[in-house]
Amino acid sequence: MRPSRALLLILPLSAVALAGGWWLSRGESGDVASAPHWVDENQCRQCHAPQFRDWQNSHHHLAMRLPTGDTVRGDFNDVTFRSDRETTRFFRDGNRFLVHTPNADGQPETFPVAYTFGWAPLQQYLLALDDGRLQALGVAWDTAQQRWFHLYDGEGVDAHHPLHWQQPAQNANTQCIECHTTDFRTGFDETTQRFDSQWHSLGVGCQGCHGPAADHLRWANALNETPDTTAGKGFARQLDRAPQQLDTCGTCHSRRTPLGTPTHSATLQDDYLLSQLTADLYEVDGKIQGEVFEYGSFLQSRMHQAGVVCADCHNPHSGQLRAPDNAVCTQCHNPAATPVRAAIRGTHLAAKDYDSPAHHHHAPGSPGAACKACHMPGKTYMGNDLRHDHSFSSPDPEQALALGHSDACLGCHENSDTDTLLTHFRQWYPAHQPRDGGYARALFKARHGDAGAAEALLTQLARGDLPGLRRAALIAELPAYPSRAAQQAVSAALTHADPSVRRAAIEALPPGMQSELPGLLNDPVRAVRLGAAEQWLSLADQQGMSLPADALSEYEQVQRQLPANAEAHTNLANLYRLTGRDEQVAPALHAALQRNPRFVPAIVLLAQWQAAQGDGDSGRRQLSQALRDQPDNAVLHHAYGLASIRAGQLQEGVRALEKAHALAPDNDTYAFVLAVAWHDTGQRPRALQLLREQLARHPASRSLRLALYQYLPRGPEQDALLQTLTQQNPQDPLLHAHH
């Protein structure tokens, strides 16, 4: 499970840590009168028999089941599996499936399997704990190779590791079960610290996508009695409409964070915070890198822009492709250039036989002749789960070599001579041009501080055909390249139709525009409103401001709706601190640590709060104790270093800052703070050298460049820094200040 970039972002959905809570199923009576919203889905088969039959064999239906001889796919015939740190035994006792494995204290203990989790290519098992949690075992069953394997083998996962199966990261009450059941409710009680989670049904059922069906049944009954009845079909989600269908699928098939209790709005970002195209999650050309699922890449595709939806390629009930192999693509990409649906815009379709060696230049039927091999290269997650990229890119080996991103040709022919491969590619596709219109090269320039970076960003942002997520990724780079034109681009992005673009603009607001934040709290989309609230809190923290609590009521409400999350309690503590509710700060932080004793942001904030209240010694002791438990945590070392310096323990503080930099050498903040500490303790040459090295590693960092410039004496090295800045961004205000 990867931590979120900002505290608001609670925990991103990730199947790396598939975990669960102890779910108590609510009644599934078919009586519509007693269940005004949700109904027994067996009633659906009366009118929708083919769809129901497809669904019964789908991964959606089998996403989470009670353990039986039919649903458990792993070998429980007294089998022992050994990872790099732990030993786990699988066996049966009658109808019970049992796991003997180390518990949270590292002591072997036997647990019954409460539920199966997933179907293929791997199946995990959820083990119940006494406080209502279901936790996902890290040892999973490979359904293809028929073997046990550990999701994190080789990573030293034991009882003290954050990815151990009993740690909070593996708790599905706050993680993945939402997407494996229908109408899931967390049901966490803060008083008892227990879960009483509920669902309507195991697996993703009809209503999981279409919404509660009671009104639909009423409509159907009325239609039977009065055939002329045409007023609506009684479903909250009209999945025949492209935006709603995409957002419904994206609810689970995306990297996103829940924003409190779901409203089941028609807009995904009213209920979830969609991850942006950050460098750790996506490659520079937009292909998947981290575990981001399909939605984010698909939104970047030409397919999406043309009006293609998930159901054009996938049977939404079985989950299978609409047609076998390349035939699913040739529904549209055919010699007649005829889309499979009239609503799909065929403007860019070329009349061509794409399933021909004349196009793909591989032997018919070979792996290289498959459309997905070239246009949907995949990555393996969770040990054996190959997932195909849905941005539908085209191979571009020359650009891939220049920018360092993956490429279908280079990936399949990794042992071939590169020059020969490029020669063949140019011969086969002499008219090839990058399909993204220069987006990847512009983003690469910006992230690497290349000459012309600012101009490349602004040129791309002037395009009218840029997908929203890509526009947001470019907006996110603008703070490193300030200018009047950049400010205008951010201002325009604040009113863009895509909420992801507006969110990026909020985070990129220059100092002169941050007064607009309060007005953005009224944006029509919740994710944007909460992003504005978070930025306003951050600004208040930087400037020592106090904010009116009522202006941030929605932000506070969202955090309160997530009481099982340590992150939410930490967010509340920060909110209380900045809105003058001092008496509530420490209790909120203690609540966060009760949920997750190793949650570093809460540990650090509590230490800082204690210091602000005049008890810096307690804060330092807390940080020191946390470091004994997490000795390789750079955040804790950095916080301890700063706390020690404030307490007058300069040498001890500098040593801690050095350790933080050593553990996280790519963190510019740690390098900068260490350089300041060295400089102020008489180690000026070391400080200058550190800044030089860090800037060489991250030449796009304007803050590092300015810090080094200010520390250097007037001379050629200062001039060189300004010259590079001129090449990157000739409109940088700093340059005008030096003319």
From TrEMBL:
<dbReference type="InterPro" id="IPR023155">
    <property type="entry name" value="Cyt_c-552/4"/>
</dbReference>
<dbReference type="GO" id="GO:0016491">
    <property type="term" value="F:oxidoreductase activity"/>
</dbReference>
<feature type="domain" description="Cytochrome c-552/4">
    <location>
        <begin position="43"/>
        <end position="65"/>
    </location>
</feature>
<feature type="domain" description="Cytochrome c-552/4">
    <location>
        <begin position="170"/>
        <end position="211"/>
    </location>
</feature>
<keyword id="KW-0732">Signal</keyword>
<dbReference type="Pfam" id="PF09699">
    <property type="entry name" value="Paired_CXXCH_1"/>
</dbReference>
<feature type="domain" description="Doubled CXXCH motif">
    <location>
        <begin position="310"/>
        <end position="337"/>
    </location>
</feature>
<dbReference type="InterPro" id="IPR016024">
    <property type="entry name" value="ARM-type_fold"/>
</dbReference>
<dbReference type="Pfam" id="PF13429">
    <property type="entry name" value="TPR_15"/>
</dbReference>
<dbReference type="InterPro" id="IPR036280">
    <property type="entry name" value="Multihaem_cyt_sf"/>
</dbReference>
<dbReference type="Pfam" id="PF13435">
    <property type="entry name" value="Cytochrome_C554"/>
</dbReference>
<dbReference type="InterPro" id="IPR011990">
    <property type="entry name" value="TPR-like_helical_dom_sf"/>
</dbReference>
<protein>
    <submittedName>
        <fullName>Tetratricopeptide repeat domain-containing protein</fullName>
    </submittedName>
</protein>
<dbReference type="InterPro" id="IPR019734">
    <property type="entry name" value="TPR_rpt"/>
</dbReference>
<dbReference type="InterPro" id="IPR051829">
    <property type="entry name" value="Multiheme_Cytochr_ET"/>
</dbReference>
<dbReference type="InterPro" id="IPR010177">
    <property type="entry name" value="Paired_CXXCH_1"/>
</dbReference>
